[in-house]
User: What shape does this take?
Amino acid sequence: MLPSFFTDVIQKKKCYSFWIKTHTKSIITELLFTQLMNSKLLVSFILVLVSVVWAGSFIVVTIATEEMDPIMLGFLRFCVTTPIMALILLFRRKDLFIIKKELPSLSILGLTGVTFLYILQFVGIDLTNASTASVLINTNVIFIAILSVLFLKETLGKKKILGISLSFLGVIVIILSNRSLDIFSSESMFIIGSILVILCAFCWAIYSIVGKRLLKTYDKFTVSAYAFVLGTLFYIPFVINDFMPSIQQTSINGWIAVLYLALACTVFGYIGWYYALEKTEASKAAVYLNLIPLFSIGMSFFIDEPITLSFLFGAILIICGVYMTQKS
Assistant: This one.
């Protein structure tokens, strides 16, 4: 038998050895996880996934508006989203408050980034189709470039001018591409819907320009959360009379659409987007947004949307024009 002193030493050595092995594995696992979270591959995967989810929103809205009012659909989306985003903001405990003098700017963000943005977008999708809306809304990059020249004194080089020209040519081609589908006329709902989607893109451009100043001082997530709260409040006059009847008449499929738009597109989409912006340059992340119309066009085959060669040509012009504008 070994003396008790040696027995204690051996036991302690075994304990230390076990502790070292366990914690070494834990440290290695944590380092690998951290490296994975910071890797370019993960960032690219998240950006692609966000693009797929946002592309799916055009399909979901197209289906949902067959039974739901598009304006009410947008409001219900933010009735779910806004409280969640507000709770996340509270838990983050980072830049919770924005000074009162920024209220006019935040109100503009609420109107252009939530209320008018989604009223125009959802009504526009209802009057056109998913693939057309997803391509036309991409013109927000073009409007941002134009507004940046007018208000931020940025330069407009030859590549930007060419990109803007290509995009607007693509818009004309897409609108005219539906002549063969017998929905082109002076009273056409399709043309009105296309204009609404383009106005939606213009709203996002205003949101981006106004938001750019606030983002120099405040956290991105904080600014978005305030915009969501104000935008949801500004939505109320548009839906107050039909709110209860719409709630009662919404089917399970309608609520699934609302939850997809709220949880997948907004909560996951924004969190994923902001995470990617922290890990890569904004210009590089923005290039992934060009995938959205491509994914939407692909998904539109599942709901039997007609895709013409002229539409595809117009889509290529817009995507190329947007890409050129971004890169320049």
